[in-house]
Amino acid sequence: MIAPAAIARMIADETARFTAANPRSAALAKDAARHWHRGVPFHWMLDWGTPFPLFAARAEGSRLWDADGHVYDDFCLGDTGSMFGHSPVPVSRAIARQGAQGLTFMLPTEDAVAVGDLLAERFGLPFWQITSTASEANRAVIRWCRGITGRDKIIVFNGCYHGAVDDVFVDLRDGVPELRRSLVGQVYDMREHTRVIEFNDLSALEAALAPGNVACVLTEPALTNVGMVLPDPGYLEALRDLTRRHGTLLVFDETHTISTRPGGWTGTHGPLPDLFVLGKPVAGGVPCAVYGFSAEVAERMERVRAANESGHSGIGTTLSANALALAAMRAALAEVMTPEAYAHMLPLADRLAETLRATIAAHGLDWHVTHVGARGEFICAGTPPRNGTEARAAMQGDLERAIHLYLINRGVLIAPFHNMTLVCPATTEDQVARLGNVLGECLSSLME
Ligand code: PMP
Questions:
Q1: Model pTM score
Q2: Which interval of the chain is the signal sequence (predicted)?
Q3: Which of 440, 436, 353, 415 lies closest to 80, judged by CA?
């Protein structure tokens, strides 16, 4: 429906428009290139489809200002790190308070007691540990699962993403497992210890579990990093039953699906996993992640630890659970990620999805919109994908890039890697309406 020539024209026009509108970002990009490799302190900052990086000046709530003074309605929200809004007041206060009292001691503070109680109460698992990132939490969890089961294999789903975690960088192409093609410096073959199967395929799951050598299944309850793939009704319950039957631990990574409700997907729909991972927004944007586990897992961990004479585990980094992260997480859990916040976010996310659907339909397109609570996603294809292969097939790189750039040039940010939108407690109905209008103008322009 949308001609490749129209997409190419939009990318060219919008690239020129961005360049003309952002002289300060252009100058900063030039200066930054003196010493930052490829001009940015972290290479993902180049992934927004802009001709040079957009430099941020500040952000507050659901808005972000750039170095040239433009203001954006921010539906990307740091790709989830700020999904409860930029600099929520309780978190900023906690950071300021702790900032004057020491940042990192490798000792617990009183906040640890409160945070432990908050995590256990909210997510239903009794024991917890902290890391600095969700990637690190997933690496720790995989190591623990292998350690306590004495099994070497893990299962992940095609199209999954759990952070910079070597073990899960395996894809299925035409049903054949292969190493993720984009990996740099990969020297060992993860397929030796990782089985990759399609989401929503119970017979593949049974076959992969059958040899009895699988330590854990690691998954998001709904895949959110390959577009969005929802579980079929009953699928997660079957996954829970099958893993239990095969002595395999079930790990839910709820780093993104915390968008569902205050207790995440698990606390809303169940089932309860053996281990649970949550990163990104859990300390309001301060680097921090947590993993929780059942009493049985804790007991098995203790047995492994007791048998380990050295005390070293290969798990953990120095800055984890420092005083700053604990203070920020306490404020985020107790005062920001509240039922009241979700009471604003969830209906507005419904509205956002309806707005996108109406805008898309008004242009005669059959694109699909789906959402898990406050996290929405549209795909430029008609049928909702049931697995990673279908989700990948729905991706339209150039078209999506053109749309992203058009939106940025009109003051709207959505997540750069796909078409993800987040609604935070500060997002307004006007911002949602404007997103719909700007997307509508974009589609009209593409279809002229
Ligand atoms: N788990 C999931 C589900 C994620 O989407 C991501 C990042 N997108 C991570 C883990 C890793 O988070 P981080 O990059 O903060 O380590």
A1: 0.98
A2: none
A3: 415
